[in-house]
Automatic annotation (TrEMBL), chains A, B:
SMART domains xrefs: CoA_binding
Residue stretches making up the CoA-binding domain: 7-99
A GO MF label: ligase activity
InterPro entries for this protein: Acyl-CoA_Synth/Transferase, ATP_grasp_subdomain_1, CoA-bd, Ligase_CoA_dom, NAD(P)-bd_dom_sf, Succ_CoA_lig_flav_dom, Succinyl-CoA_synth-like
Keywords: ATP-binding, Ligase, Nucleotide-binding
Keyword Nucleotide-binding: yes
Coiled-coil residue windows: none
Species of origin: Halogeometricum salsisoli
EC identifiers of the protein: 6.2.1.13
Protein name: acetate--CoA ligase (ADP-forming)
Record lineage: Archaea, Methanobacteriati, Methanobacteriota, Stenosarchaea group, Halobacteria
Length: 697, 697
């Protein structure tokens, strides 16, 4: 592990506020530490000479500890942390509540705490934390009622109560942990820090967590990408739904980012997002212990046809598929299986199958090069010994080194077999869908671990010109820009239709004469948002009508709003919509993840069908291309219904250029290119709207 | 119960093929019956005087039984059933395998069995069945290793092995059953028969099942609709996915209907379809024991904020919503809950909550008129006694008579509490999503039980004219019809554009002159499917060009295919697509459910986005309207993006009229109206294609 290592493997732990008082947190922590911790425990409390027979010191400065657990009341907790820092203790866990979660006084106390931690360069967990655990040293520095069993999952949670619930349940299920941390208010250390540390920890094979928010989106993505090259991360991020986001916001007191940003950010980070506690642990358990499959083709071996069909459905619902066996395998099955069975997948070895037939069939299937993983699916029969089958399954899984999921159906009679399987890292489920879910998680993580993250392309752009255009809003009350900012796109190499904004009818004519064919004319005014509604747009204007059209547009605008700030009239080349597809490329700012890019097809696709996709900027070429591929309406870009495909490369490049623009200028708060017309010959940004924060320029 | 009653409550059961031979089915059934059955058991076997000390008879005719279980080998099984019928035994369960599931010899044996059953009017279960159980009399007439516990679920399964697995598991979970039946090959009695019987059975409060197919779709729908006015039905119908359907087909040897038909048919039947075994039992357990909620507004009472957020997410995922409390409730919570808690939903009564605070909060929430159901959600703490909370939860649920779900999180320490809850019909889950899932099922069934099924409207149509048009295919090799059958729609009152099919250019002109504006002209030939591709369609033809256009169309058709059967040229009014929306109304035949209606929006919506919806015909007005409402693109019919809404009533009526047409004429194998153009002023069927089976006319 990296810098945080001492936090989980301290030599000597000081408990600041240790006491024997019944029902107190200081007592609970002392008890938990004394029970199992391999190192030394030092009670810190000026009121006592000893606590539970352990000699106490008056101040943390005298403790000679390398980890301090702070449980004293809030008004003296910050001072205790400062003393720890002064004494050279680098690792501090603040259990004490009454900080940021409790209003303005608490918030300023938390600010003070953060400053102290920075001054002394502390690894500080909390405040408002249940504590930390690490099973290799038996350290339970929490005030919870349960200690963790040893295992290879490391677990962080933004809810301390959830940790106590999980531990009680996990102990019953035989699930163990390496480290456990209750993040509390995350005043200093946050999820990215622990992911980083556990990524370097050889004893952690899976990182799991429950989060209500992510503190620094971009940092999280960058850290998680590196870690997930080797170590899977599975998280429940709650607040997925509108109702949940509202509840999370009220629970943690932080502004919730949009779930679209979390969904995009977690995906870009390589995190497997679980939607429920069950999904979280189902995925984590197999990721902890099983090898990754070489292929997504699953063999199902069963003594019962009906459940075999159910399992096939579950495979159909997942990213996996049913394996097609090689001829050798089929020959082998033909020779060894009864005629009324099924040699094709799902392999039905029939209800009278004994252990030998089961073992042989599984062995043959796992040996097949077309098989990436297998599911052992059984219903109880008089001739099948579940315990023996469990042992065979474990042995064959290890020998073939392919992932195996177990679905030994039944209740009481399955329990000893299930224990053998669980012990060997093969969780057993009654429901085939959950067995398939585990294999699905392995397949997803294999793809994540094989990802190559390209760097975002840096295009040659005119940043100075862009800055000038954006500066237009300085000193203005209304900081929105519209078509008058089309040059901004131009500065970043995003193609726009030929044309210009003019403020005199004769100039309009000059521009129009330079454009082939009729033109589109639009009034340009920051005060007039819905131009079409007031007749502020004229389409297909021939040159001879341009002069009058100019006058008419200005008159309409004046009539509509006499005091409107009229910048002029845009005279623009007609873009042929018939041969093209209207798309929208947009960006808005997420409080946690920063610029969030959006892509979709124009009109009904975004507005009615909500067929959109999101990415946190900056994006690499591959990510921009994925955006053009993963919307439901993507086939329309690629020539559905006999039409020519449009210039998808151009769309992809436009997304990347916009990504670069909004990354270069955090002052751009939101921006929409709508429509970006894509034709077989290229793309053109026909209209743009953005909002700028001049203070960030 | 109705006619099937004797099957489950026999006085005296004959076991035809009873034996003591080790490992035999006849022995297993004898043992199971002797163990617990309240009535008499009669072994039938000419080889023995007695079996397990029970006097045997030589033939079933001498048994004086009212239920015969047949386990003798296939070649003598049919004769045994005949003898039972002759002896006046009305109820027979054929355990014996080797019938329809094993090839052509077996199939003809099964046919013979069906004929015998019909001759003697037998209630016949199987063949190839595990048997039947009924807990009130302790009858276990199966050869499975487990007996069921008593309960109020009745359970049917097309997989016998699945029954043995479920029983073993259910006994461990404390889940009981009223009747259990292994359907086997369903030669006589099928799922609809058991649904019908259990619907009348006062001791069955939920019907559950595992099916791989439904024998008679329409009968099933009609039966289930009636039963689900009172009794919920929850089914796993496997073969949902393509892979699963293939596996199901190979397992049962029947042609799989499309899952679109099953999805539509089960929904129309009022059946709750579970996607997994877990979903099946999670739904069934609450439906068995809990009251239906008056509203979908849920209160969540918790001592832990984090899990409260997770639960809120699960509510957001479901059809339920978070309750908004009345002012009285909020006042009450303000007065009684600690300041750091949350009085809004999810109600956070904070980690130091004792049993009294929990009980009071739940009591207040359940008393709130805005609350339809509640979830009790806890993490383990030192101050909360789970057992006491379980008792309180049960008491308050009963007192307020509102559904309550429990999510007492934890492992070992939860077990006694979970038993108390389960006993009272409140299943406890570690995962909040599953607790929410149970309440969701209650809400769904409330809506199902309140449904009023309208009868399909019978429109005044010209059936004779329709029959004449359809008869055109008689004697033809190609039994497809195209625009030449537009009159068919007309005969059923579906509006078509003005126009006619003519076979001479001067007639074309006459027709065109009778139509306002320019016309569309299309070649009409059963041999030319893709008219546009050969230039067989002319749009916007003015009257002066009609004559030449006629000649040109015919020439093109002749050049394309000299021997084509050219019926003539269709001259049709231009339908204004700009003000309208193109829709598609179609039908194809499903092997189980018969005519299956499809509706969607034309072009990309059906072809690229697959945005379609299905119903089994005939449909009532309400069902046809639902079809226009439930596609994703439905807003486009109702005036999205500032356009005028189209004539949705007209679309709805067209679906109903098509439903009547295809119901009246089973000879129509498939039919597509594409497009049916819907404008604000009405709907017009612009083109039609159908395939007819002349033998069914």
């Amino acid at each position: 592990m990296g810098e945080l290592s001492e936090l989980f493997v301290p030599r000597r732990v000081a408990v600041v506020g240790a006491t024997e008082r019944e029902g107190s947190v200081g007592r609970a922590i002392m008890e938990n530490l004394i029970d199992d911790f391999d190192g030394d425990v030092v009670p810190v409390n000026p009121k006592y000479d000893e606590v539970f027979g352990v000699p106490a010191v008056a101040g943390v400065g005298e403790s000679d500890a390398d980890l301090a657990i702070v449980v004293v009341p809030p008004h003296i907790a910050v001072q205790a942390v400062r003393e720890a820092g002064e004494a050279g203790i680098r690792n501090v866990v603040v259990i004490t509540a009454g900080f940021g979660e409790t209003g303005s006084e608490g918030a300023s106390r938390e600010q003070e705490l953060t400053e102290v931690a920075e001054a002394y360069d502390l690894n500080l967990v909390g405040p408002n934390s249940l504590g930390v655990m690490s099973t290799p040293t038996g350290m339970n520095a929490t005030f919870g009622p349960e200690n963790a069993m040893a295992g290879e999952m490391s677990f962080m949670s933004q809810s301390g109560a959830f940790i106590t619930a999980v531990l009680d349940w996990a102990n019953d299920q035989g699930i163990g942990f390496k480290d456990v941390v209750s993040l509390g208010n995350k005043a200093v250390l946050d999820e990215a820090d622990f992911i980083d540390a556990w990524g370097d920890d050889e004893d952690t094979s899976v990182i799991i967590g429950y989060l209500e928010g992510i503190s620094e989106g971009r940092e999280f993505i960058d850290t998680a990408r590196e870690v997930t090259q080797d170590t899977p991360i599975v998280l429940v991020k709650s607040g997925r739904t509108d109702a949940g986001a509202q509840a999370a916001s009220s629970h943690t007191g932080t502004i919730a980012g949009s779930d679209q940003a979390y969904e995009a950010g977690l995906e870009q980070a390589g995190v497997i997002r679980a939607e429920s506690v069950q999904e979280l642990f189902d995925a984590a358990r197999v990721l902890e212990s099983q090898p990754l499959p070489d292929s997504d083709d699953v063999a199902v071996i069963t003594n019962a046809g009906g459940p075999g069909v159910m399992t096939t459905d579950a495979v159909g619902d997942s990213r996996l598929s049913m394996a097609s066996f090689t001829d050798e395998t089929l020959d082998e099955f033909s020779e060894t299986l009864p005629e009324e069975g099924n040699i094709y997948n799902p392999v039905d070895i029939v209800g009278d199958a004994d252990n030998e037939r089961f073992r042989n069939a599984l062995d043959v299937a796992l040996a097949d090069e077309n098989v990436g993983s297998a599911i052992v699916l059984t219903c109880p029969t008089a001739v099948l010994d579940y315990d023996e089958l469990a042992a065979d399954t474990v042995e064959l899984q290890e020998r073939h080194d392919k992932p195996v999921a177990a679905c030994f159906m039944g209740g009481e009679r399955v329990k000893p077999a299930a224990e053998v399987l669980t012990e060997a890292g093969i969780p057993n489920y009654f429901d085939p869908a959950r067995a398939v879910g585990g294999l699905d998680a392995l397949s997803r993580f294999r793809d994540i671990s094989e990802r190559e993250y390209d760097r975002p392309t840096t295009f040659d752009v005119d940043e100075e010109r862009a800055r000038e255009i954006l500066s237009d809003v300085e000193g203005r009350e209304d900081t929105r820009l519209g078509v008058e900012a089309m040059d901004l796109l131009d500065a970043y190499g995003i193609e726009t239709p030929q044309g210009d904004i003019v403020d005199a009818p004769e100039d309009a004519l000059t521009v129009a004469e330079g454009i082939e064919g009729n033109v589109v004319m639009k009034i340009v005014s920051p005060d007039i948002l819905h131009k079409s509604d007031i007749g502020g747009v004229k389409v297909g204007v021939p040159n001879e009508e341009v002069f009058d059209a100019y006058e008419d547009l200005v008159t309409r605008a004046r009539n509509y709003q006499p005091d409107a700030n009229i910048i002029g009239v845009q005279v623009q080349e007609m873009v042929d919509l018939d041969s093209g597809v209207e798309t929208i490329v947009g960006m808005n700012k997420d409080p946690q993840f920063g610029p969030l890019l959006m892509f979709g097809l124009g009109g009904i696709f975004v507005e009615v069908l909500e067929d959109t996709t999101f990415r946190v900027a900056p994006v690499a070429e591959s990510e921009a291309r994925e955006m053009t591929e993963e919307i439901d309406s993507a086939p329309l870009l690629r020539g559905a219904r006999g039409r020519d495909p449009v210039d998808v490369d151009g769309v992809t490049e436009t997304i990347q250029r916009l990504s670069q623009l909004v990354t270069d200028f955090p002052a751009i708060l939101e921006l929409d290119i709508n429509p970006l017309v894509a034709t077989p010959d290229g793309v053109k940004a026909v209209d743009v709207r953005l909002t700028v924060d001049p203070d960030q320029l």
